[in-house]
Design goal:
Blueprint: H1 6-12, E1 18-21, E2 42-45, H2 52-55, E3 69-73, H3 79-88, H4 98-115, H5 120-127, E4 136-137, H6 140-149, E5 154-155, E6 173-180, E7 193-198, E8 226-231, H7 241-257, E9 267-272, H8 277-289, E10 294-297, H9 301-314, E11 317-320, E12 337-339, H10 344-357, E13 363-369, H11 371-386, E14 394-400, H12 409-424, E15 428-432, H13 437-446
Helix pairs in contact: 3-7, 4-5, 4-6, 4-7, 8-9, 10-11, 12-13
């Protein structure tokens, strides 16, 4: 994929709407991935399952994903950024949420330098401001230089390209990649298109408080800024964890190469959110005991919601690169929770748009019954109805959300849902889940649904 300028990307964003961008499309030459299956029903997905590593879960079902289409928060990533991330983890096959993870780390560092403090309470009050100033900077080095000199700036890095944060600390606008699986159950990059959603005018331009006056002494006497990476190594979202860890560690490396924060290197410890609230809460408690001021995570929305109360009580910052539930916009976080991933009301518009452009009039939705799955399913359902699909032509089926699913659970959990969908007669099926979505797709196939 080609990198785009901030101007080009900004032009692709529309106020509270969805717009198909022209870049990233195939160039007119055909590949073995170009054939769209002549099937009766088309599969759709969302950010929880639109990844090459998801296709690995369906190795025993060749080409079953061919033609599946879906969305994930994704800004066109430059070859240089991908190279830098892969220098941290050469085994990567995906870059989902890598830009958001990188930006989460950088934004916290810039807020600490702007506030002249590693105190989380001070940093929290500077975070929105470093994304909504007047003068653009787009590299760690340039932005840290501006912060250290007290100059006005706004960070425009990897995912934060077109606009800054709202007053509640989340993106005011975002780009989504419309991804397509090919015959090898892998994403066909040549077909990737970009969709913009959101409203740049909802940026919060309120000036942050001025940093406290220094009284002399050695700046290095201040405690160093310490990060904790609370991202998925295990559980249902583990396959999405590697690019997030790699990008966060790349940001740490580049911050320190640029001189660190407050005159000293930033520090980092790693944890596992387990795609499980209890695992994540235990890891967060360890971070707090270790003096971590900024937690990058958690991965899933439900896990993030479970951790936020303890983080807020302890007065620590939490920035999720991938938690997208709309419910998190209004969570009682005491001003300590932020996210570089856009809320799902934006993704719902993008998903509904591609479903409608494909001409479907009868749609089934299979979704995890948690903050992420239920919220996104309800948003898509609402937007499909607003686009003209009658309520009785939309079937929503939810299933129990767990951090891990045993292989033997698949038929028992998903066969009844697949049977009902077959009888419903949908022409488009949206699957909202994590790695267990592979089980749902297998049940659809064994039930005779021609995907």
């Amino acid at each position: 994929m080609r990198a785009r300028s901030a101007t080009a990307i900004g032009a692709a964003i529309t106020a509270i709407g969805v717009l198909l961008a022209a870049s990233g499309c195939a160039s007119g030459t055909k590949s073995d991935e170009d054939a769209v299956p002549s099937a009766d029903i088309r599969l759709y997905g969302t950010d929880g399952n639109m990844a090459n590593s998801f296709g690995d879960a369906l190795k025993d079902s060749p080409a079953v994903l061919n033609g599946m289409k879906g969305t994930t928060p994704l800004t066109p990533l430059s070859d240089d950024f991908k190279r830098r991330v892969k220098s941290i983890d050469p085994t990567l096959t995906d870059f989902n949420y890598s830009g958001e993870s990188y930006d989460a780390v950088v934004i916290a560092a810039l807020a600490a330098e702007t506030g002249k403090s590693s105190d989380p309470a001070v940093i929290a009050k500077q975070i929105v401001g470093v994304t909504t100033g007047d003068n653009t900077c787009d590299t760690v080095s340039a932005c840290l230089t501006a912060a250290k000199s007290g100059k006005d700036f706004k960070y425009r890095g990897i995912s934060m390209r077109s606009s800054g944060f709202t007053s509640v600390g989340e993106p005011s606008a975002a780009m989504y990649g419309v991804l397509n699986f090919g015959t090898s159950n892998k994403i066909d990059d040549a077909k990737t298109e970009f969709v913009g959603a959101g409203d740049q005018q909802s940026e919060d331009k309120t000036a942050p408080p001025a940093p406290a006056a220094t009284t002399g002494g050695n700046k290095n006497q201040k405690p160093p800024l310490k990060y904790g990476l609370l991202l998925p190594k295990t559980g249902a979202l583990a396959f999405q964890g590697p690019p997030m860890f790699a990008a966060a560690k790349l940001a740490i490396k580049e911050i320190n190469e640029a001189g660190g924060v407050l005159g000293q290197p930033v520090q980092v410890v790693e944890g596992d959110d387990g795609t499980n609230p209890e695992v994540a809460k235990a890891a967060a408690a360890q971070f707090i005991a270790q003096g971590v001021g900024v937690i990058i995570g958690a991965g899933a929305s439900g896990v993030s919601a479970a951790v936020i109360p303890a983080i807020a009580q302890a007065g620590r910052i939490m920035i999720s690169p991938s938690a997208t539930s709309d419910a998190l916009t209004k969570v009682d976080d005491k001003g300590f929770f932020f996210r570089t991933s856009p809320p799902d009301n934006l993704q719902a518009k993008a998903v509904a748009d591609i479903i409608m452009r494909d001409g479907h009039t009868k749609v089934a939705i299979i979704a995890r019954d948690d903050n992420y799955g239920s919220g996104l399913a309800e948003g898509v359902q609402k937007d499909l109805q607003a686009a003209g699909i009658r309520p009785e032509n939309i079937l929503v089926k939810k299933y129990e959300a767990k951090d891990k699913y045993e292989k033997a659970e698949g038929p028992k959990l998903f066969d009844p849902i697949a049977g009902e969908i077959k009888g419903f007669g949908a022409t488009g099926i949206l699957v909202i889940g994590f790695d267990e979505s592979a089980m749902a797709i297998k049940s659809l196939v064994t039930s005779g649904v021609k995907v």
